[in-house]
Amino acid sequence: MAPVTSLTASVHQRLATALSAALPEAGSVDPLLRRSDRADFQANGILALAKKAKANPRELATQVVAKVESGDLLKEIEVSGPGFLNITLTDGAITRNLAARYADADRLGVATADDPGTTVIDYAQPNVAKEMHVGHLRSAVIGDAVVQILEFTGETVVRRHHIGDWGTQFGMLIQYLLEHPHELDHKSDTEDTAASGEEAMSNLNRLYKASRALFDSDEEFKTRARRRVVDLQAGDPETLALWQRFVDESKIYFYSVFEKLDMEVRDPDIVGESGYNDMLDETCRLLEESGVAVRSEGALCVFFDDVKGPDGNPVPLIVQKSDGGYGYAATDLSAIRDRVFNLKANTLVYVVDARQSLHFKMVFETARRAGWLNDEDVTAYQLAFGTVLGKDGKPFKTREGETVRLQDLLDEAIDRATTVVREKAEKVGLSEREIVENGRYVGVGAVKYADLSTSAVRDYKFDLDQMVSLNGDTSVYLQYAYARIQSILRKAGEARPAAHAELELAPAERALGLHLDQFGESLAEVATSYEPHKLAAYLYKLATLLTTFYDQCQVLSDDNPTEVVENRLFLVDLTARTLHRGMGLLGIRTPERL
Ligand code: ARG
């Protein structure tokens, strides 16, 4: 289905044409169109143009108005103030535009990007044998939304879950498991992913603590553990098999959390740090041969003019340690080579905690110097996110100061949401099964939305009371907006949604319609700036415009002529589809009855 040209784009086009006609020597000029409260749009571009052409702005504006071809798009254009244009559209143009969007049930008339490329996105990257924390939740939630949004714009997206599955700590863990072979066995034989996930994590936790204690107290164990690291790096089969058990066990746990989060993570997309082991030597060789990295006190280092420690001495990026070992940077540099040269990425996006920004700054700059990245067709971007804070404004921890277990946190959100859903359930006639399902969608949606509705770089407070509130900028407010429309559509009986372009529109209908028309442009902006919070803001605005519309316009009223009922049903149905689409892109469900 052909994309729908937005009203803004059409108005823009006509004004630009009129501007060039009025002042041919100016070339192509931007009329600087804005949504406005006084009319539908205001154009401010004439002021700057008049200044450049040394013309009187009001006179130029009047000439432009005379040249604009109104057709059936523009109802009124008037010159205002020092030379602005106030532009009002015809009601018919708005309705026809929305009808074209409505006919495209899948994309709502939204075009794909002009020149889509390939983006590799690195997100949802917990660490093997370690509990996930709220930071991993943020990476997963933001990353998943960006994946959906980019795919919707036509981008080819490759997902990479860069899990922490390599490092010296595995020597200790593997050695311990070798000496205590049954420590990772599952006692219960359950089909329930959540339950086996929890069991997996508690096994890993227990084993981690026990091996750590032994490592710290028993010198001989320490020696055996260190030797085990060497075996692991040398690829000894028995050692690798045990290492694999840790990875597999951890995946059971990760999947249980992702499933609870209602999020798809696919196995082939999990390429952890170990996945780049074969490339490390070559990465170092390339960097050293090209002079990008130099040996310093035995270590292979990259230096930067603007990266200095507190003592004023340069802090290098260490690609290879003096003992020959590779760390986080070597892996990330190898991953860049893989993503650029094998996966053919044009863009690399890393959804990672802002506290790792210096690391990525140095890694990206190193890759640029090596010629693996540039500033034009192969670029990298860290979508950095801030810290999750507790209600007290301090980093989110349990009262005992431990990391909050994600399952507990999600369970609590779901519990609270279920209470909210249950309160209204009788009136809506929900079955117990629906209450439980909606409780999940509302609870998980609340957690995701709270994360996605603030700009990612900012810290945000994890406040469940606020998150499941029915009023304000919350997912459940949006979910109710959607469900209420479905309820109206069910109550409509014989009346079906249908566009009637001949009808006059009330102000609240125009406002709603003009915002619906903006969906594609908002998405395009969100996709280029990687700012899902702007999509959340768009949807929230849509829901508030809908509330105003209900206040001012009855949909199913006996006093309304049939066409008005049909046209309003059509308007709310398009609103519902837009909400559904937009929320879906954020990874949030919209139950039909709530
Ligand atoms: N596993 C890391 C952590 O938990 C995040 C990995 C980020 N991605 C990367 N390519 N370094 O902090």
Give a nutshell description of this structure:
The protein has 594 residues and is α/β, with parallel strands linked by helices. Helix content is 53%, strand content 10%.
CATH topology title of the domain at 406-585: Isoleucyl-tRNA Synthetase, Domain 1
- What are the segments in which pLDDT stays under 50 over at least 5 consecutive residues? none
- What distance separates the N and C termini? 32 Å
The helix/strand class is alpha/beta
Helical proportion?
Answer: 40-55%
Kindly report the name of the CATH homologous superfamily of the domain at 406-585.
Isoleucyl-tRNA Synthetase, Domain 1
Sheet with the most strands, sense and barrel status: 4 strands, antiparallel
The side-by-side strand order for the widest beta sheet comes to 1-2-4-3
Strand tally: 13
CATH architecture of the domain at 406-585: Orthogonal Bundle
Mean pLDDT: 95
Fraction of residues in β-strands:
5-15%
- Net shape: globular
Instruction: Output the radius of gyration.
Output: 29 Å
Notable characteristics:
Gyrase A, domain 2, alpha/beta, four-stranded parallel sheet, 20 helices, binds arginine, 13 strands, Isoleucyl-tRNA Synthetase, Domain 1, four-stranded antiparallel sheet, 594 residues, globular
Word description of this protein:
The chain is an alpha/beta fold and 594 residues long. Helices cover 53% and strands 10% of the residues. The strands form 4 sheets. A 4-stranded antiparallel beta sheet has the order 1-2-4-3. A 4-stranded parallel beta sheet has the order 6-5-10-11, sandwiched between helices. A 3-stranded antiparallel beta sheet has the order 7-8-9. Helix 7 packs across helix 8 (219-234). The protein is globular and about 90 Å long. The protein binds arginine. A motif ('HIGH' region) lies at residues 126-136. This is Arginine--tRNA ligase. Its EC number is 6.1.1.19.
